[in-house]
Amino acid sequence: MAKVVKTSEKPNSVNIIDIKDFGKHIKYKRTSQGLSIEEAATLCNINARTLTKLENGAEGTRLSTAINIAKMFGLKLIVE
Length: 80
Hints:
80 residues; mainly alpha; 434 Repressor (Amino-terminal Domain); 4 helices
């Protein structure tokens, strides 16, 4: 039987101030779609460790990787 993915808390704001905010949005989108870290990483063509680090707000992920992950989860990034 597949493991049930618990939906994480929805971020309070649509504004992303730092990498931790970005990670919360990614984690919420992944969990609300019922995807495990491994499943989501496969869909994003990255390894699970990279996705875990990003969701936890660790610095060091390439911007291009972060943008691709956001697109895979249907997040729209706007620069003002």
